[in-house]
């Protein structure tokens, strides 16, 4: 009997071993417990059950079915690896449905890949070649491929299914998807996730019960009858700049004596800097930041807002500003179709949008024209709007410093110490942000020389994290610790800046108050004197209210929340969760987010979901 024939006849055992090795690789990257009894007990039963069915029912095409199953499970393990490296959570069907966007962000996706990940496909290639070659035809003919309908196979199948159910059932209630997947097994979790979504019928709170008073009570704030600065900038233009992948630690950072963001460093000396401000995006990242800032609503669970919420008549900042006499426009050098922005901008109610059709593709960086082009072509448009008979609200979205930060070398403006290798994600990030800061400086100078700076509210914030903790290798983490003076953790990763310039209101200062992107709408509304009495909003006015509760809905497991002092990440339940100090990211067992805060954060997310689902279609 040839070696190939023996392999074919013992296919069940060999394929179990092959998939076990792949599951060990996946679990080691995601959970750090690759080879363990937990891996064997949670991963093997699923594919054993599937292989038993193939043995029982399949005949001469048995090896084809084995190969198809092997390919599908391998692709799923690969997707889990890649998704975790950026998002830090387990991929699910909602995320897999976005695979069509990989072509747009291919460079970003490929940069996450460790070469050895591709080795999990090696066996598929080798076995396929061997089985196709004519020289092995006799070996294939000699193999026993008829159905094996014995009681033993059915007994093994039944036992495997029971073990899968035992893995799944006790962990159904876990809020933490990563813990669920670890305890259930990766394949069990994916199937459970599909079934759970099919059967999920989360109760909806009636819209007449979703009141601003209820939201404020959950957040622990009180609406003031006469808030400070109400209408203090009435009639001023509003310019909101969304900065790509910009994290707060960049401000004031020097590496080898070189300032990374010299223009921003100057700017914070004349504006108000909220240093404990946090990103609140979901799967849609940049487009989700646009959504949160302009609606003061939370992103949906496990989905991009542009995929599920943009068919609704959303209450928004552009609509509010138009009601108060403003013209509105948004500026982005990418194609408007990406992330379904065509529908997003319609739902938000912008008067006009400028996209790739306006900016062209000259001086291409990342997905479109460079930040220099963005600012140089946007400034004259803002000047035109300023000449009109009413003020304007403009949102400007930068993009050049986009992951994986492969800007042209001609854009490099700094040299870093030798330990910052050119192929390091950290190095590329710093150089890209330095270039973005250079372009930003030109824009700010243009606003000032045109007179727009003195006649406008200008807000600047980062859209989302730039350096995913899960993507950094040990050397890059060491570089981050050397730069920051502390370990780079979740609190540093999600910490973005908010810079606020309001003529006659703000002073050069650093504010410790915790806030999030959801707070920008009510803050702007207060400054321009726009009443929110008839508009539901889940953020708070940063100039008047001092309590904050920030539910985190992506990049961390469900149930994660930030309060004024801590970032909380749940375990299987609240009681085995962990708290990390906002000030330095260190884990703490003293104080921490209370169970009441945790439950109130979950209720806020539920109310936001319920509210949007019941809005009329646009």
TrEMBL record:
Q: What is its main location?
A: membrane
Q: In which pathway does it act?
A: Cell wall biogenesis; lipoteichoic acid biosynthesis
This protein's membrane topology, according to the annotation, is:
Multi-pass membrane protein
Q: Is Transmembrane among the key words of this record?
A: yes
State the SUPFAM superfamilies in the record. Answer: Alkaline phosphatase-like (SSF53649)
Q: Does the keyword Transmembrane helix apply?
A: yes
Query: Where found?
Result: Cell membrane
| Segments passing through the bilayer | 12-31, 37-57, 64-84, 116-133, 153-170
Pfam families referenced in this protein's UniProt entry, alphabetically: Sulfatase
Q: Which UniProt keywords apply?
A: Cell membrane, Membrane, Transmembrane, Transmembrane helix
Q: What region holds the Sulfatase N-terminal domain?
A: 236-529
PANTHER family, alphabetized: LIPOTEICHOIC ACID SYNTHASE, PHOSPHOGLYCEROL TRANSFERASE I
The text of the family note is: Belongs to the LTA synthase family.
Q: What is this protein called?
A: Sulfatase N-terminal domain-containing protein
């Amino acid at each position: 009997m040839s070696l190939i024939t023996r392999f074919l006849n013992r296919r069940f055992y060999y394929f179990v071993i092959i998939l076990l090795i792949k599951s060990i690789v996946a679990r080691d990257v995601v959970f750090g417990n690759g080879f363990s009894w937990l891996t064997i007990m949670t991963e093997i039963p699923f594919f054993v059950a599937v292989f038993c069915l193939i043995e029982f029912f399949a005949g001469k095409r048995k090896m084809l079915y084995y190969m198809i199953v092997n390919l599908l499970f391998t692709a799923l393990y690969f997707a889990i690896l890649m998704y975790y490296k950026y998002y830090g959570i387990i991929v699910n069907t909602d995320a897999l449905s976005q695979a069509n966007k990989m072509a747009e962000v291919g460079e970003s996706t490929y940069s996450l890949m460790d070469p050895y990940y591709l080795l999990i496909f090696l066996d598929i290639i080798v076995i396929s070649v061997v089985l196709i070659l004519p020289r092995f035809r006799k070996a294939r003919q000699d193999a026993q491929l008829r159905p094996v309908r014995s009681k033993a196979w059915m007994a093994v199948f039944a036992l495997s299914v029971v073990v899968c159910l035992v893995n799944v059932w006790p962990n159904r209630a876990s809020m933490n998807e990563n813990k669920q997947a670890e305890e259930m097994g990766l394949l069990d979790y994916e199937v459970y996730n599909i079934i759970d979504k099919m059967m999920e019928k989360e109760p909806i709170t009636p819209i007449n019960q979703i009141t601003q008073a209820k939201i404020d009570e959950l957040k622990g704030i009180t609406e003031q009858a006469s808030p400070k600065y109400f209408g203090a900038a009435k009639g001023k233009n509003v310019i909101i700049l969304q900065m790509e992948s910009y994290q707060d630690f960049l401000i004031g950072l020097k590496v080898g004596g070189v300032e990374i963001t010299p223009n921003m460093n100057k700017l914070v000396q004349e504006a108000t800097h909220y240093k404990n401000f946090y990103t609140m995006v979901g799967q849609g990242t940049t487009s989700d930041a646009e959504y949160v800032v302009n609606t003061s609503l939370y992103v949906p669970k496990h989905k991009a807002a542009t995929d599920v919420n943009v068919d609704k008549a959303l209450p928004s900042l552009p609509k509010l500003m138009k009601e108060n006499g403003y013209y509105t426009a948004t500026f982005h050098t990418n194609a408007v179709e990406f992330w379904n922005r065509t529908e997003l901008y319609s739902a938000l109610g912008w008067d006009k949008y400028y996209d790739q059709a306006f900016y062209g593709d000259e001086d291409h960086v990342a997905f479109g024209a460079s930040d220099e082009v963005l600012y140089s072509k946007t400034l004259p448009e803002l000047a035109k709007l300023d000449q009109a008979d009413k003020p304007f609200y403009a949102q400007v979205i930068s993009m050049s410093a986009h992951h994986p930060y492969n800007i042209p070398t001609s854009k490099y403006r700094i040299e870093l110490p030798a330990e910052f290798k050119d192929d390091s994600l950290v190095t590329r990030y710093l150089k890209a942000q330095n270039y973005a800061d250079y372009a930003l400086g030109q824009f700010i100078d243009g606003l000032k020389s045109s007179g727009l700076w003195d006649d406008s509210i200008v807000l600047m914030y980062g859209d989302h994290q730039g350096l995913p903790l899960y993507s950094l290798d040990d050397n890059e983490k060491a570089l981050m610790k050397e730069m920051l003076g502390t370990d780079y953790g979740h609190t540093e990763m999600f910490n973005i800046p908010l810079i606020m310039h309001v003529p006659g209101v703000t002073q050069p200062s650093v504010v410790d108050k915790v806030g999030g992107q959801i707070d920008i709408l009510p803050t702007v509304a207060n400054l321009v004197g726009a009443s929110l009495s008839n508009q539901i909003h889940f953020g708070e006015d940063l100039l008047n209210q001092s309590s904050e509760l920030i539910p985190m809905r992506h990049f961390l497991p469900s149930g994660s929340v930030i309060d004024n002092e801590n970032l909380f990440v749940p375990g299987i339940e609240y009681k085995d969760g962990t708290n990390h100090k906002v000030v330095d990211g260190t884990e703490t067992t003293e104080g921490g987010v209370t169970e009441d805060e945790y439950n109130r954060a979950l209720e806020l997310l539920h109310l936001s979901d319920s509210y949007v689902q019941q809005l009329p279609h646009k």
